[in-house]
User: Which sequence fits this backbone?
């Protein structure tokens, strides 16, 4: 392995993971030297100049939808907690669960080996389309528009689950 290959391997290890806004000016701002494959963000181009299918990108609209959904979930959780809902109800997904890094582990009383204690097993979603459809459905059910909270319906405390 020559020096250039070593540096290439270092860059690949250091490349940020996650999702990037697909707008050209955003990509350029995040990696000024991006041409065909970024060393910094998970984005590459095909020979015709399009972003490749392996690029991890969402549109500005999709980021707006994620943001609206996260805000909706935060509000809904807040309302449920204010209504007194503090059940011990940890999730599990793909062998990982909420308890792994939890600071309340020694006092909450949850033990999966005890009767009455079981993880709330989340269904793994297989595609972005499925995830966005589920978020849109959640927002519609709560009376919110997918792009913002402008049409939000204000449910009574504890109404929403
Ligand atoms: S350790 Fe207890 S409080 Fe923490 S996530 Fe698990 S069940 Fe919930």
Assistant:
């Amino acid at each position: 392995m020559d020096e250039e290959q070593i540096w290439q391997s270092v860059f690949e290890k250091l490349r940020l993971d996650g999702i990037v806004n697909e707008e050209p000016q955003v990509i350029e701002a995040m990696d000024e030297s991006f041409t065909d494959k970024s060393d910094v963000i998970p984005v590459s181009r095909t020979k015709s100049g399009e972003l490749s299918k392996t690029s991890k990108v969402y549109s500005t609209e999709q980021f707006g939808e994620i943001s609206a959904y996260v805000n909706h979930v935060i509000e809904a959780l807040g309302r449920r907690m204010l209504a007194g809902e503090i059940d011990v109800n940890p999730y599990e997904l793909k062998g990982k669960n909420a308890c792994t890094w939890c600071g309340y582990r020694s006092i909450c009383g949850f033990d999966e080996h005890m009767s009455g204690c079981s993880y709330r097993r989340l269904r793994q979603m297989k595609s972005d389309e499925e995830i966005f459809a589920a978020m849109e459905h959640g927002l519609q059910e709560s009376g919110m528009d997918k792009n913002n909270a402008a049409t939000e319906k204000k449910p009574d405390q504890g109404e929403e689950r």
